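Incident log, entry 3
Record: TOG domain-containing protein (1321 residues)
Problem: checksum mismatch between cached and fresh output.
Input:
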Amino acid sequence: MAGDDSEWQKLPTDEKVQHKSWKARLSGYEECIRLFQAQDNEKSAEFSKYLGLLKKFVADSNEIAREKALDAVFSYVENASVATKTVSEVSSGLILKCFNSRLKTKERAIDILMMYIEIEKQDVVQEELVKGLENKQPKIVQSCLEILRRALTEFGSKTFPIKPFLKSVIPLLDDRDKSVRDESKQLLIEVYKWIGKTLISLIQNVKPIQMQELQTEFDKLNPATDKPRQTRFLRSQQDLKLKMEQETTDGLATTTLESMNIENNDDGDDAANVDPYDLMEPVNILDKLPREFYEKIESKQWKERKEVADELLTLTTNNQRLLSGDYFELVKALKKVIAKDSNVILVITAAKCCSGLAKSLRKDFYKHSLGVIEVCLDRFREKKTSVVDALRETCDICYPGTNLEQMSETTMSMLSHKTPCVRQYTQQFLTKCFAMATTTTLPKKVLKVYLQALIKNMSEADSGVRETAAESIGTLWKNLSEKNVQPYLTDMDELKLNKIKEYSEKAVLLNAKGEPRGAAVVSVTTKKTDPEIVKPSEPHSESSRSKEGAQKAGTTKKKQVSATTGKKAGGTQSATISTNLNEPYCEQELPVEEAEIKALDYVSEDTLQGLTDSDWKTRLASVEKLFDKIKTLSDQDVERECQLFLRLITKTPGLKDIHFQVLKARFDIIIHLATKSNKFSQQSLKLCLQDVLNKVSDAKNSQTAKLTLTCLCEACSFQYVLSLILPQINDIKNPKTIEQILLWISQTIKEFSLVNGLDVKLLVQICKQQMQNSNASVRQSAMILISTLHLYMGKTIRTLFDDEKQTIRTLIDQEIEKNKDEKAPLASKFYKRQQQASLSSGTAKHPVQESVDDEEMGNYEMETDEKPDRMESLLPRIDISHRITEDFIKQLNDKNWKERQAALETLKTLMTQEKLIKPNLGNDLIDALKLRLNDNNKMLVNLALNICQLLATALGQNGCKVHAKTLTPAIMQSFNDAKPQVRQCAISTLNTWYEQCGFLSMFDIESVLELFQKGNPFMLQELCGWLASVLQKSTPGKCAELKQLIQPVYTCLEDRSADVRSKAQELILPLMIHVSYPSMAQAANKLKSASQAEKRTTRPQSAPLKPPTGLKSSEDLMEGNDNRPATASASDSLATADPKNDKTKPKTSFSLIKPSQLKTKSLPLAKSTIQLKPSTDTPEKQKILSKTDKRLAKKSKSTLFERRSLLTNNSTHRQQEEKQLSYIKKTSSMDLKRTCYLSGGSTSSLSSTNSSVQSTTVSNSHHPFAMLRSLSNRELDEQQQLELVTQPSLLTTTNKSRIPIRIRDSTSASTYKPVFYTQPN
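Fresh output:
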């Protein structure tokens, strides 16, 4: 033996591996391993020596030697470039010799095959593995399946495609060997991970029990944790492998192959990119057709025709991919049947055959598409719905094979067909084609051809033709934009144009696949937020419910539909919390059968049967028993089983019960469930809402039904419930039901307030349609609803009905007039979920408290010049920015005035048609409008002013604030015009802007000052007049920039024009109210002496007392310039009054009132107030003082009165008064008042102890503005009602009999309202 060993040991390696001794071969294999690994060059000549020997390596008869041979083969494949030439013979040897061997050998064989895949020979390996699936030995088949699964898992579906092996794997689910069945199932599960639900359509022929098992496994997959990834790469992908490993170690996000521009697996896109059609094997059905098919399809016997047509339909249905071939004769025969066969069943069958061929052949059928569409359109003359539906489906499937330009000739003939239904259905088909069109597929020359025919059909007598034509044009309008369609519709009347716009808003644009254009975006999003699989919770476990709630709270970003797509399970339904607080919870739908089984836990079987019994007494008793049981349950149990109980009471006859007592009992259960359950779900709401809605017109249960709807609104939100109700109203036939629904909506709006989320546009459309109802009660209820909307939304809602008939507008105005003095009520009911959310937040207010706060501040807010329009966002506004094109702007700025006029007329028409628009108009349009407001052609100026007025109404409050400071200076420029009509139009336009956005939003001090400096007398006259009228209506203290107007106004008082001087005098007092008297007096003192003397001579003959100059405005006090005396009694301020001239009869005096004598209600601590009671009960005094009290109650937030001067200043103050007081007027309508200003803004009115004061003239050579002082006293007395303020600590130093008010500090335990009273004679 030793001699034999020495003999083969001398042999070279390539001869050792072929030696008959297994030891020699083993030694040769070991040398091969060292040799292969030692080679530096993969193209070394050593590798070529063993090229033909590898197939013998893997087939070695000795197990020990074979293991070492496999190691050598692996080293060879890993290092040699010529290894790719050996893949076929080596793979087949491995499959046959190694897969049924010991485990170590099998694992090494698998490694070799995976290495062959790595060196990019996956197609050959896959082919050999598929052959191995046909082997009779189960171990080999199971091993092949295992390698297929591992290769797919590691390399991915793009590197290792699924199609070649899938067809061979599916039959193995029925294999007699369990290991084979299990491994094939695991392989299909791995395939499902990569291509998703596409696999389901490919395994439809699997047995139901196997399909159920697979579906169960598919449902167990978690998209987050079971997401497939490529973990092994080809030699050409090694650079990507290094980068991905580096990113993984650095903690960075994984680089996708798309970003690297390298073909690789991306699991997120595989399911979307894999087309089942590509995985199917094409079938040749031409060879499977009956021999006499073409003879029988033209037979006179309809049964023979139907027989062969059914056989063809079976072939096209069962084979979803057909082999390319000559289908010309077949399609020709089918077209003949569609066009001429009198049997409609055959027509339907032939149409379905054409659809099947188009689906199965795809691009190979495109050459037949136009001919099939033509015969289908012509056959639309058939009136049976089943025929029309089949033909329409065929047209839709065939359309991708052609385009609108190719079809134009055919469709034009159909659009002018003598049969109306042909035109109607053709237009419906075109509507879908237009939804998929683009400017490329529908050029202007083709668009013009289609529009001409469609516009003509808009005037047809048949309503169906008119409506479908409008729908087609509306789809074009939305898809191709207005600028491409509008030029062809210039001669169309407004009614038809509005119909087209209505359809344009409803149109849904489609992509090339016929799906909504937003669907692709949605699908990408949903892939990253896959549906949550809802787990069943234990029925009576409180801890499990709390744990579930915590998990739900952590996954609020998932879609609400996750609950409905999750796995159904018995037990409690788990609700998915919606992140939208305006929508109710969403839970799994409970089947009726499961509900009946679960109901036995709460009620007996007799009670369940009694709910549907024909005897009303039995039904009533059963409903009452059920209600009694529900009452005994806790709120948590009611919340959990809410849907269950609703299933029981809505089971036939349910809420359609004809007996009023039983119906009322059912309603009571719904009210109880809605009240007790804090998680009333969408599914529960939909179970009962429709039936409750139909019962609002019930004679005996109408009020109960309305109460039920209100409770549902509290449980599920008013917005959500109304969104389900509104779309149904116009379809209801019973006028009484419509009337009661509208009345309920009107009342519920008042209870919940007009909250955000309501579809006001839809509400308005419903009101418009119901105003045309023949029933007077319905019309009246619609007007009541409009009046309710008017309470919350104001005049804007009324503009939406301007296009109605005059009689309807009059009725609406009359209904609104009834509630003119009524204010919008605050919300008294709230959505429970929002209420809980607000209460759970530490900083959030309770909804009721917010309403109270709104009510407290409401009166003050309504007195300001800028009223907040909180309902602005609810109004439906239209974006017209796409209609403001560059060509339109050029036309507005054209040199030819006729072109400019045409552009302005177009803009005016647009403003008239679109009642409410969005503010995104663009700077180009605003700049062009400014130029037209200064146009040389006065007619265009007037037109531009009218457009600006319409624009203010259309923009609304928020929109006007965007453009006010840009447009209003240009509008004021029209004051320069000599024509009074132009100036009056400008004033009207400015007033409209003021009503919309208030004074502050439109006042630009720089522009106004420039107008004062450069304006002509017309400008100064109108500007002063308009400012005077606006400032009188505005709240003082809001605009500090008004002080800059004092000097220009003084200049206008010296103007040569009497009209300018007159208007400037009217402006003095409103301006002084806003900027304070001291500011006006200080500016007047800076004038020249001549001007001062001139102003003294121009004062009015009757003027009241001016306020003391020592008293300052709130602004001055806040700046720390308070030099007033600490106290000032009535006699101090009237030191110059002459009591001899006092001729008034009634005498009035005032004194302090003790707190115990007061009967008025106390206010909160921080809001101390003073209430004045005039000495005479005149209505004017009561009204003025009442306004003052309201203002005080809202504005005071700290101690009411402060005085920061010393008592020693009294004498100085009196001397200043005597010097400055020039004119005093006798007043009888109101006691003489003295004015003080305080730092906090709150004031009080003080009446003097003298009943009247006679006018006294005091000459003052140092102060020229006597007219200013007299005007200030008179108007401040009637409009401002500012109060004298005294420090509480100094009251004791004054004459109490002459002090008309009692003052309490805000830090006191309680605060009272002091009152004046008339001393008894």
